[in-house]
Amino acid sequence: MNLEAFILGTGGMMPLPNRFLTSVLLRREGELFLFDGGEGTQVSLRKLNLRWKKISAIFISHTHADHVTGLPGILMLSSQVDRDDPLTIIGPPKIAEYIESSRRVLDMYINYDIVVKEITEPGIVYEGEHFHIRAFPLRHTKPCVGYVFEEDPRPGAFHPEKAEALKVPRGPLWSKLQNGEPVVSSDGAMVYPEQVMGEKRKGRKFSYVTDTLAFPEIASEVANSDLFVCEGMFERDLLESAKEKKHMTAEQAAQIAVQAGGIKKLALIHYSPRYTEHNLKQLLKEAQAIFPDTVLSRDRAVFPIEYED
Question: What pLDDT score does 199 carry?
Fold first, then answer.
């Protein structure tokens, strides 16, 4: 089952000609999940030829303009195609008011159901088949949350030689064992899945953190992420400015990745508009000095998220 992260925008504060505002789309087979919707999100969706009608849920970190100004366009865009399933929008307090006021003032034509859920406490906010998405609090100038997408553990590897040794004939009984069901062998003995299966294998994990001070609890939330998308808004020399604005530096994002443990890749995002494409290399250099497996997110970059085995 494929899992991919599409970077739709990487900028903070204001859009630039080649840098839309922050937004990331996660695709798990045919199901799509959007994290934030800054200005330009709709354009990147079209450029990547992604099927926006398949967006099941939108997860908003907070209601600052550079993270939500693309939402009205997404809602109206979805009305241009037949959509039977409701669209779920999840975010901290004020997101419901923002959606409702946008619909009213813009007199939107919406031909599908929109379900808005405001986060009042951390924990699981969305569940699907063999995965969940949970929110955890961040520290910004207004209520803000980070998100973690995590798959359930997968069954261990099936060992056919063990099944044969226990006299379980090849065929449907093997499938039942792999699906977690006990079976009866050809000599009448009960055979349980744990007798022929290896240890459970880790599912995939994606974490999204932006617009926050750096603080230790983030590390425990994002630990063991296959892809950790995290803001790296400023360089080290602007640490005090980052603290004042309740943002973090690229170096701090890398420190969180190290503290977390098990992070396979850190992708920086939400760059200050002060940095040109050339200047972004300084952010990358500072982060890689601490966490070598760091990359710069780019608008419309794609990150496949693979099973570790």
Answer: 85
Helix (H, G, I), strand (E, B) or coil at 35: strand
**DSSP string covering 167-204:** T--SSHHHHHHHTT--EE-TTS-EE-HHHHB---B---
Catalytic residue among 36, 66, 226, 299: 66
Q: Which residue has the tokens 């099927």?
A: 51
Confidence of residue 87 (pLDDT cuts 50, 70, 90): very high
Interval 40-86: pLDDT, tens: 898 999 899 887 778 999 999 999 999 999 999 888 877 777 777 89
309 labeled part of a ligand binding site: no
How many C-beta atoms lie closer than 10 Å to residue 142's C-beta? 12
Which residues are registered as beta bridge partners of 148? 134, 207
Does the active-site annotation cover 66? yes
Centroid of chain to Cα 173: 37
Question: Is there a binding annotation on residue 270?
Answer: yes
Q: Which of 91-95, 189-193, 252-256 has the lowest mean pLDDT?
A: 189-193
| The two structure tokens encoding residue 250 | 């690229």
Q: Any known ligand binding at 211?
A: yes
What does the DSSP 8-state code read for residue 69? Answer: T
Write down the pLDDT at residue 78: 72
Residue 229: Cβ-neighbour burial (10 angstroms; 0-12, 13-18, 19+): buried
Domains of the chain, CATH where assigned: 3-154+201-304 (3.60.15.10), 160-196 (no CATH)
